Amino acid sequence: MVAAALSAGSIAARPASAQTEPKQPAKDYLQRSLEIYEFRKAAPSGPERGQEIFYYKCWFCHNEFTQDIPKLEGLFKKWGITVDDQMVMDSKNDMFPVPENRDLGNGMIVREMHQLPYPYWVKMDGDQVASSSVITGGLTGSVMHWASPVKADAKVGDDEHRVEVLLRSSDGSWLTTATKVEPDLRTYPKSGFPGPKDTDKKGSQAMAVAITGGFASSVEKPKDQPRDPADKDAAPLIAHSPPDTRIVVFGSSAFVSDDVLGLAQQLESDFATSNLELVHNAVDWSLSDTDLLGIRSRNTAARALTVSTQSRSTWFIVNVAIALLGLLAVVGFAWLRRRAVQPIISKEA
């Protein structure tokens, strides 16, 4: 599982030029070469374009098959950050649409969509969301899709890191190495998935962390290694970041993808759509621009009812019973008012 990481850096603003810049020529995006040159082959914008830029700019050279080049996974380990290879399954999860065929008789079969609890979509709310952090303080909840647990060390070498867990799974979660993420309703008609095994690690897992501290660069050479004479005239490389560098690591790379967000909108999942605000807050925090976090408007998830799946039917019955009792009370009050009315009889009669 690939982690989505956001890091902070210094931004230098250039003074505005007094001269008017020449008008840019028109671009014809029907030319495939232009899409490839601007990294817009997969999509003009959004996460898909970000994945394309990541592939050509990062993974193409720093993948696991290259030699004598720092690996992205090794870079995380050098910073004391570990993203587990296992995925988190949780009994507290979001719904997933599953097609099912229903036989109406006389050879008529109708294909219907049913919402099934999906343990790979971990739902977090309440005390599972860090209320003390400016990133998640205004969020009611979040949903991580096909996520892995994240771990960060508080001390890496001589660097001290301040680690803050932003999101946690529930105590009913467990880790799995299974790669089959499709529900099997024939074998498991109720849930579509088997429960945790005895060998699976159970308990709450960190799904997102925020780290503040110094981080060593991948180009940093050991202190005891002699300096190459050929590098004498070369420009010095940044061997270490400032001590207030900020990084946010999520255990999922798909929780803000277009496909997942589109499916969440169809299912009216407020927590899934609030992931966009979570990413916006993480970007502002990583760039030390926390002023926007205080004035950011609250999303629809702030009004969502956080009711567990097991108690939904109970609350539904209670609400229906309260509505019926209220209706009976109104009818009874009107009936008593009508009986209390005395007829007006004139003296002439």
Write up this protein.
The chain is of the alpha+beta class. Among the domains are: 38 residues, no CATH class; 154 residues, no CATH class. 24% of the residues lie in helices and 23% in strands. It contains eight helices and 13 strands. It has a four-stranded antiparallel sheet with strand order 1-13-12-10, covered by helices on one side. A three-stranded antiparallel sheet has the order 4-5-6. Strand 4 and strand 5 form a beta hairpin. The longest helix is centred in the last third of the chain and has 29 residues. It is elongated and about 125 Å long. The relative contact order is 0.15.
List the helices and strands and how they pair.
Blueprint: E1 4-7, H1 32-37, H2 47-59, H3 72-78, E2 81-83, E3 87-90, E4 93-105, E5 108-125, E6 141-145, E7 150-152, E8 155-156, E9 159-160, E10 162-168, E11 173-176, E12 206-213, E13 245-250, H4 258-266, H5 270-273, H6 275-286, H7 291-295, H8 312-340
Antiparallel strand pairs: 1-13, 2-7, 3-11, 4-5, 5-6, 8-9, 10-12, 12-13
